[in-house]
Design goal:
By secondary structure, the chain is mainly α. It has one domain. It starts with a helix and ends with a helix. Keywords: Membrane, Transmembrane, Transmembrane helix. It comes from Neorhizobium huautlense. This is VIT1/CCC1 family predicted Fe2+/Mn2+ transporter.
Length: 77
């Protein structure tokens, strides 16, 4: 693999990792943190479905972040 191909491959992997990490952040903020905070300060308090949804979104966000880090391990020196 020549230097230009390595550079292009690395940039594509970094863009993919950035996108996947961004999806993880969005999942954390919108699916996990948002409903959790709004239900805590809402009139009904924290309900079991909201707590489960938040936990699932927190887990999904962690998995997406970890997947992004795995993409970065494939960078070619």
């Amino acid at each position: 693999m020549d230097d230009r191909s390595k550079l292009v491959n690395n940039e594509r992997l970094k863009l993919l990792a950035t996108f996947v990490n961004g999806m993880g952040l969005a999942t954390f903020a919108i699916g996990g943190l948002g409903p959790l905070i709004s239900s805590i300060y809402g009139p009904h308090g924290l309900t079991r479905p909201v707590a489960i949804l938040s936990a699932v979104c927190f887990l999904a966000a962690f998995v997406l972040h970890y997947a992004a880090s795995l993409f970065l391990r494939r960078l070619v020196p």
